[in-house]
Amino acid sequence: MVGISMYGGYVPSYRLNRMTVFAAMGWLNPASMMIAAGEKAVANFDEDTITMAVAAGNSCLENKSREKIEGLYLATTTAPFKERQNANIVADALCLKDDIRTADFTGSLKSGTSALLSAIEKVGFQQEGDVLVSAADCRLGKMGSVQEMFFGDAAASFLISNEDVAVEFKGSFSAAYDFVDHLRGANSNYDRQWEERWMRDEGYERFIPEAIDGICRKYGVTIGDFSKIIYPCYYKGARKGITKKLGLEPEKVQDDLQEDLGDSGSAHPLIMLAKYLEEAKPGDKILLIGYGNGFDALYMEVNENIEKLNQRSKVSAYLSRRKELDKYTKYLVWRGIAPAEVGMRGEEDRLTRWSLVWRNREAINGMQGVKCEECGTQQYPPQRVCVNPDCGAIDKFTPVYLARKGGKIFSYTSDMLASSINPPAIYGNIEINGGGRMLMDFTDCTLDDLEVGKSVNFTYRIKFYDDKRDTTFYYWKAVPESEEVS
Amino acid sequence: MAGGIKDKVAILGMGCTKFNEHWEKNSSDLILEAFQECLADAGINKGDIEAAWVGNHLDEVNIGKGGYYVSGVLHLPMIGVTRVDNFCASGTEAFRNACYAVASGAYDVALSVGIEKLKDTGYGGLPDSPVFGQFVSLIGPNGTAPGYFAQLATAYAAKYGISMDKIKDAITHISWKSHQNGAMNPRAHLRKPVSKEQIKGSPYVAYPLGLFDCCGVSDGASMAIITTPEIAARLKPDQDIIKVKSLQISVSSGEEAMYDNWDGAGVVTTQVASRKAYEEAEIDNPREQIDLMEVHDCFSITEMVTMEDLHISPPGKAPDDILEGFYDLDGQVPCQVDGGLKCFGHPIGASGLRMIYEVYNQLLGRWSEERLVKDAEIGLTHNLGGIPNQNVCSVAIFGK
Predict the structure, then answer these.
(1) How many angstroms away from the CA of B65 is the closest CA of chain A?
(2) Contact B147 A383 (CB under 8 A)
(3) A66-75, pLDDT tens digit by residue?
């Protein structure tokens, strides 16, 4: 039996109220008032697809062994690298083994469900080893566009396994159509879409029923057998139309989180599923549809293991942790939509020396430190001579991964001089749990959140972006614990 | 048993430019200006100099690497010239090398040069560069000098249970004092007295440091000619000879940054270097015996903790001493008589030698009445480089 053994989600802490967007851009597109309800989740200035996929992965793997994971599939249409396996960056940050299969699923919003299916097929075929699927998107619409209103940033993650399965895979039905309702060229940052009526009437309202019908016919079930139908569609009217057309009971259609976080692209059907699994009961039959240039429909059934899972509130916890992003202009600057003057200090050359990064990959990716075999002192970054002045042993160390250990604030500051697109830069000395200290950037907090002795967790974030060479470098930052979902 | 440096070398002459935003001057102009003063003070000829060391930190900005720039500017006669760098303590490092060169007997006369020209970067503060190496620049915070030093305040407040308000009062007094002293010094960069209200109300740079808690970023050069006490006495029979009583340096071992035995409320290397310096100079009660000090007040909070690290204020009591005026010009141990880094300015590589320049001239009683520390016999300089977690500290003591 193959299926989902655990799920996780991630929603960045900032929310942009759609009325804030309308207040800034309504002059250009007055009709956008019609869709200005609720709020969208916005990645922090140091978050992107990779960091959100890592956060969702960690949320999923919290109490799970990573030793058994033999594959990591990343699904996204907003990968930071066209060439450099994005999934590998996620796998390294999640401290997965080296001998795994990785792949980036991209090019369509159904890439999330395609990755899920590929993972299910891999595990099903090999009958051993788990595969982690992480889907994340951070899509942009032009200023004043409907996409800017609709799109939100989020990630979801599923562990596909043939052991401890809580959601059994029953079957799937896919179709591929070069049906273009929206697209983004290889060199474009912004989504462009065809007429709304076309997207709605000829798109969603035709293909979603086709997907449902396909599953029913292929597996001899009826639509009434399903406890939940999960599909993304940010047009409210179209959702209503589909419900009516299929004679669905409205409560059987999973809420698409449009008011809470917006449409998260490749991740969206997956985060909707994760949200549903928080309250799913054994015996629930689920129909999950990924939609984009065709569709993937997955037929699944929840079993009694769902009740054994710890901390099932994977998405809701993040949804309730929210901070208002009160300025639309901050959103523009963080996403690089509008250029901001960050001063000449920010023009320092940030060339990444890849050979150096490769030599130190363990220390960077998983914050691998070392523990002295002679005196037990934990230290970071890895040393060859023990830092304990009473020890000094050479090369007698055991590696220890610190990224998930967290620590305590030892000292801190908030710096207006440091160049940042989100000043002030907040950083300090951290006492790592288990021993050792380090200077670290803080994120997702303000000066008022900090106090000596307060606990912090580490979160994988963008350390810097080299705009000269279009290269993002990632590393860990500290987040005060009360700000973090526990 | 090694005998140390005490009384083995003497300062024959010194020079120091005004520290300033020298938009009109090149590094070469500053070097020549300090050199002319230094050479005249020493009363020797250029050809008498047998070797030179140059302290300079941010070489990329102006003078480049190696020793050639200084040799090429002064057209030194093909002697050995070496550039040394130890962060903001580079000036004292150049001095230390020249002292050892003479003490060893290898040379009779050696020159030490401190030079830095920072105001060609196009922005305020220090130039951003990976000073701790490429790996650290990948994983270290997006930080600046004020941010690293500011953290002394949060850790100090937590350690001693002292309120941030009281710390702010103490560091405000420090900057106020430096402005008072700097205003009287024609060579200081910042020469305007400011009120405590102005200091306290200035916009914050790195919590809890405001603009007035940060030293000036300046251009400048300073210099010393070192010789043996015997040669100095022969060349200057009518003048006191200022001798080096101790010269100690301590560099972080990585414990502060990585181990768990540092309290974060002070600078360990200062504690170590000063203890050794007192021992070498045979000073057993620095609070009573030191007549004046020039310390590395890159930020007001640095000066505050340094008063304890130099074993002058008892632990947790520096704010009290400071607020009681113990370190004021008319206090028991005047500190930053020339305005300090805060107001005299801080061209990195030149600062250590500038501190020595002030102590040397004070001990010789050369300054005007209003800013002279009367009957000073023992002066101390404290030159710090790096950040509180990982740094280098030089402590030097001078006397007759």
Answers:
(1) 20
(2) no
(3) 999 999 999 9
